[in-house]
Amino acid sequence: MALSRAEMDQKIDEHFDFEARDDIDGVLATLAPDAEHDIVGSPLGPTRGRDGARPFYEGLFSDLSEGRVQTIRRLYGEDFLVDESLWRGRAPGAPFGLVGKDRPLEFRLLHVIQFAETGDIQRENVWIDLAAIIDQLPQD
């Protein structure tokens, strides 16, 4: 049974809301127990399951703060959506290996989200505009 667009929106918006609150357990609860989590270019590579995704979020939440996601557009399929968003916040840590010095930061994200029949996120595939991040966080 396919999810409606509204059901897909609700789940991804819930996921982003947990991210904005740095709520690791909440974020992980939006994933299917055996979900594939793939941040393209991450040295961790694709991970499996909620426990596999946890280290990424622990690092992310220590490196970035005050994050807000603004959806630019979404495209939908039967069991997936593609979300283009703009992330805005601060970089107190070392996001993606770059020293942030608590500077403001914004960059585009592209999520490809595939849903399980239960409505949980079965696969999260994320592309990050690393060029924009490098430009805003020059290393002295």
Write the topology of this structure.
Layout: H1 5-20, H2 24-29, E1 31-39, E2 47-48, H3 49-63, E3 65-76, E4 80-91, E5 103-115, E6 121-128, H4 130-136
Parallel strand pairs: 1-6
Antiparallel strand pairs: 1-2, 3-4, 4-5, 5-6
What report would you give on this structure?
It is a single chain. With 140 residues, this protein is an alpha+beta fold. The protein contains four helices and six strands. Strands 2-1-6-5-4-3 form a six-stranded mixed beta sheet. β5 and β6 form a beta hairpin. The longest helix is centred in the N-terminal third of the chain and has 16 residues, at 5-20. The model has no long low-confidence stretch (mean pLDDT 95).
Summarize the structure.
By secondary structure, this protein is an alpha+beta fold.
Helicity, in percent?
Answer: 25-40%
Radius of gyration: 15 Å
Instruction: Enumerate the spans where pLDDT stays under 50 for 5 or more consecutive residues.
Output: none
- Strand proportion: 35-45%
Quote the distance from N terminus to C terminus: 53 Å
Outline the biggest β-sheet: 6 strands, mixed
| Overall shape | globular
The count of strands amounts to: 6
